[in-house]
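Project standup — Tuesday

K.O.: blocked on the structure for the chain from last sprint. Re-posting the sequence here as requested.
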Amino acid sequence: MNPDNPELPPAEARAAPVAVDVPDGYRPLPMMGDFMAVNGPLFVRRNGATVQLGFRVEARHTNPMRICHGGMMASFCDMLLPISIHRKSKEIGFRFLPTINLQIDYLAPARLGAWVEGEADLLKATRSLVFAQGLVTADGTPCARVSGIFKIGPPFQPDPALAG
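H.V.: unblocked you, prediction finished:
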């Protein structure tokens, strides 16, 4: 029991990852870096030219109102755009895409237990920059609109599961 709020479990229990129920076709996305390895898991689904990234809102992803914390949503959006670009642009391929600018409009809450998924499009690529935008939904309801600018960095060798 949590002494600050009896309706919430203790912090240790809220932080523990749980088995995640995901929609058909999604598979775990290998995490590139410790930050998302701790804050994930994320899942990816590809159907032709469509690339979707998703996650289930767990208690550890929520704020005190039991909705997805804006920081988690921002982290998800910051993964959605480059991962979509990696899969949709043969010219850019698997190049490191550090974020220069990330703009997020929070449209609706993503409640505890919601399935959050997003799709993104490459708008323009120059010799050194990539411009992209995406839409994120929570259980089918638009919850975030995102756009970003990324620097085209050096190539990297993706995990074979990431490349598919």
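K.O.: great, moving the ticket to review. Residues 1-17 have pLDDT under 50 and may be disordered. The chain has one domain: 11-140+148-154.
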